[in-house]
Amino acid sequence: MNVKEQVALQRTELEVAVNYALEMACKKADTAEVTITKTTGISVATHMCEVESVEFNSDGMLEITVYRGQCKGSASTSDLSKKAITQTVAAALDIANYTSEDPFSGPAPAKLMAYDYPELDLFYPDESEPGHAAKKAIAAERAALGYDKRIKFNHGASYDSHYGVRIYGNSHGMLGSYASSCHNLSCSVIAKDSKGMERDYSYTVARDKLDLWTPEKVGIQAAKRTIARMGSRRVSTCYAPVMFSADIATGLLGHLVMGISGSNLYRKSSFLLNKLGHQILPKWFQIYERPHILKGIASLPFDHEGLITRNLDIIKNGELQTYLVTSYAARKLGMEPTGHAGGIHNWFIGNTGQSYEQMLKCLNTGLLVTELMGQGVNIVTGDYSRGAAGFWVENGELKYPVSEITIAGNLTDMFKQIIAVGTDTECRCQIQTGSILIESIKIGGA
Asked: TM segments (predicted)?
């Protein structure tokens, strides 16, 4: 029996376990919800072309939440026998006897459940042996180490391959499951010369291992990025245009995700409080969410509360179209849940048509950011201050690498001052955007 056949049988068995837990819970609870996650995989790390570690994992957990009136109790178990499930249900019911009433608790609305959900082609398990995984990591290292004589060391490389099953059911009659996989290859190296040392990395990630970059591409890109940083210097403190490279721009928009997340909103701890329907980005700016992309890195048929995921406009013509709210946050805010329990699902950012090279021309003279450091972002106020590294650009050309600088501003202003988004789309994460150019940010340097 191959892995796909084993997982298909496993899904059926786990669905039976969820049904049993719900049956036991609903004898004494008003409502209940049950989740089972089971993950299997391998992680291989190498260093200087030698295997450093091999880790196997096979983890599973059943979590049950029961509601008696507005009182909530939760418990979990890794033992999926009927006896253990019965004991876990009893523990959750007992906990509910001691918790305070919360008028906003309870499962998500029955009308929004994913009773019928799509198959999204997310499952491509890798049955490779550790030796095969190690060969991929070592090949990436060798490509990086052989690229330039200044590359003396490496932080190492790793190959990770995991697959799993998620089952969700509740007392509304919702019972759904899906299998998914994720494969990742990364490499990090250090270069050294008489002026100092620099390091950088590269990685590739995909649902299907056949969609990964070759190990050689990963290694060479890690090496190129590292060598490009050699001879970094500081720049004088100034205000200048700043361009975030595509892989860094995803993090910039991650702050938008935090700002419109329900938990921050009902706590009144977001700089985007009361901004629904308001223009928060330039009029040409668009963000849309597409959760049902086949093989998508962030595709999901339903969220962690069993709600059907659906296409959404997040930003339309610069205006905020929706908050991202779970059922609990929705009740707090007097809204309808949006299907984001567990995170966002494939955000696509509209571009303004410029290639990477054309974006540099638009930047003209300023800073290209290729790395950010630190956690200096205040989601309550939007104040932004982070360590940065990258390249100083003059007349649209890279002049020299820079490091040991900071960039500072306020996210409200930074979002409104975006003047272009490139076509060099970063496709390795849940936010897919090109490089982002901001009109002016304070750069703290020498």
From this structure: none
Sheet of strand 196-206, all strands in order from the earlier edge strand to the far edge: 71-77, 50-68, 31-47, 151-170, 175-193, 196-206
CA separation for the pair 168, 123 (Å, rounded): 17
CA dist 340 to 3, 74, 260, 297, 383, Å?
30, 21, 11, 15, 25
Cα–Cα distance, 77 to 34 (Å, whole number):
11
Q: pLDDT by residue (tens digit) across 43-87?
A: 999 999 999 999 999 999 999 999 999 999 999 999 999 999 999
Which fold, 3-228? PmbA/TldD fold (3.30.2290)
Angle at 333 between CA 166 and CA 252, to 5 degrees: 65
CA neighbor of 443 nearest in space, from 242, 193, 171 = 242
- CB contact set of 140 (below 8 Å; sequence gap of 6+): 157, 185, 186, 187, 215, 216, 218, 219, 222
Q: In the chain, what are the domain boundaries?
A: 3-228, 238-444
